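FIELD: query
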Amino acid sequence: MGADTRKPKSKAPRHHDKAQTLGFSIQAEDRPVLDELVDYFGDGNRSAYLRATYRVMKSIMLAEQLRDLQAYGQQRTAELGIEPADVPDRVREFLKGKDGA
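FIELD: result
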């Protein structure tokens, strides 16, 4: 028996039902990087690569949104003269008031 030459399984789940083909363009100098990423994350399948990529990008988007919300909350508490250490108690009091209403 020879060495196992099978390719590793794709890291992305398969989704074929109701798929829609979309076109996009990239710069010629970016093509080698795209091909490398497609091979690694999509087992050579651009659609599988894109599905794996948008899950990662969605998590990055959510992290950025949460960071923005945190900055807004810090700004508002400062404007209202609320110390950061007081926030957990104020939230608990607020939630108690909602339950008791």
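FIELD: remark
The longest helix spans residues 46-79.
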